[in-house]
Amino acid sequence: xxxxxxxxxxxxxxxxxxxxxxxxxxxxxxxxxxxxxxxxxxxxxxxxxxxxxxxxxxxxxxxxxxxxxxxxxxxxxxxxxxxxxxxxxxxxxxxxxxxxxxxxxxxxxxxxxxxxxxxxxxxxxxxxxxxxxxxxxxxxxxxxxxxxxxxxxxxxxxxxxxxxxxxxxxxxxxxxxxxxxxxxxxxxxxxxxxxxxxxxxxxxxxxxxxxxxxxxxxxxxxxxxxxxxxxxxxxxxxxxxxxxxxxxxxxxxxxxxxxxxxxxxxxxxxxxxxxxxxxxxxxxxxxxxxxxxxxxxxxxxxxxxxxxxxxxxxxxxxxxxxxxxxxxxxxxxxxxxxxxxxxxxxxxxxxxxxxxxxxxxxxxxxxxxxxxxxxxxxxxxxxxxxxxxxxxxxxxxxxxxxxxxxxxxxxxxxxxxxxxxxxxxxxxxxxxxxxxxxxxxxxxxxxxxxxxxxxxxxxxxxxxxxxxxxxxxxxxxxxxxxxxxxxxxxxxxxxxxxxxxxxxxxxxxxxxxxxxxxxxxxxxxxxxxxxxxxxxxxxxxxxxxxxxxxxxxxxxxxxxxxxxxxxxxxxxxxxxxxxxxxxxxxxxxxxxxxxxxxxxxxxxxxxxxxxxxxxxxxxxxxxxxx
Length: 626
Fold this sequence. Notes:
21 strands, 48% helix, alpha/beta
């Protein structure tokens, strides 16, 4: 059912099948002339009693919309067409015997297979018809009725009226129970029931099926910025586009039967493909859905583009029951969303292991702070002109009691997604400032300590107060602290970022510069001290002309803006010498040193005092300070 039925002022749709034209004429009189005359008579009586003039005849379609046919096969065809156009009949009257073709019982059985909800009335003039036998052939008993010919007009009319209103009430209840009120698509309850039936049929007939799990990318942003009203309109538009995708005329479209799309809740949708000849057909449908749902749409005065991410699970190899197939399709969708917007992904067995690993990491990560499992390592930053140490970047390390050493590349994204990065980031800042202050008090030379700041930290309303509190408690001079933030963070809220950065009075570096989409005009207005060239550009300098061009452009731009430049990920003398030739200010990477625990970092700094370029071993010619 592609949309919710509208019952307001809707007539009762009747189908009447009888081979006798005289009987059909009798039906016509019952549902037109008699009804209209009685209706007019009642209305005229009310007018006399309560005032007002007499009324004229009104059309009979106010209560009934009747369709007539002459045999059982025509009746079955009419029901099939009505169901296909989403305008099902409420009540069907069938003559028991309609020679020379099949009888009414045959028609009732075929009609029940097409429309399980319709009420069927068998009309017969013969006493040898056993209602119990027909009921056994055409269940359920409470939806099959009988009238004996010749029947009284009021008997038939009132039966049609009562059954029609009953059908209407049952349809309302079904819609509330099984259909999403906003989009008109089947809801989770109905979808799971249909999925169970589809898998049972596929198992019995050894057919393939596919489940597509859809989630809208950044839907929450639409709700938060434009309001839930616009969000609801977007969901309705997406549902309509999704339904249209499944009504396409090609072979794959026909495999996706009407009503196989559903809304599970929120911005999650599913599509069930019940008959696949090849697994690749699921990808064709998925791509069609991506193309249709990713088109711009006008919602009120706004034009928005929202893309879906789709996960695909195949029956039987990806799941042999409802729960496992749905879980694996959802998991594949999650991997598609992590890869990038507007993508689909087939389920793979390795995803389960990855998901379990992620869940395990998140659970242990939540207890890592209280268990004191985190530590900071410090990586030196070197002045390329003199070879002197210009700073240290604080980098988080995690030694779990159960999992051992966990890579930051693995746990930092989980901390970001789970929101744990806020408390972890506060701990990092406090520890780094305490360590820098201790070194300063022991005359260990360290011009600055750099700390990475996540997006969630930066936009949190307590961020400025937290930084100021840490500086005050540790006694570290603000000028010795450098906060590294991403350029994408600045572009999300440049006005707010400007105010926060100016309020802090610390040094600011733009981390991973070149990987975002900065507005250079806006960038020069912000209180920034340094740009850090991302390691992906540095590590290709020796062989890639494009990387050399990008690095050279960033260095030249920073110089024109009076900004310092640090190149990350420098590992070879060739990379360092190229950057030095282009007048890059500082480098950081394994060529200088790996990240060091505090004791080793302190030794490195002290050794630097005795021999400023001891780490170099003559690999890079420096201008030694006088």
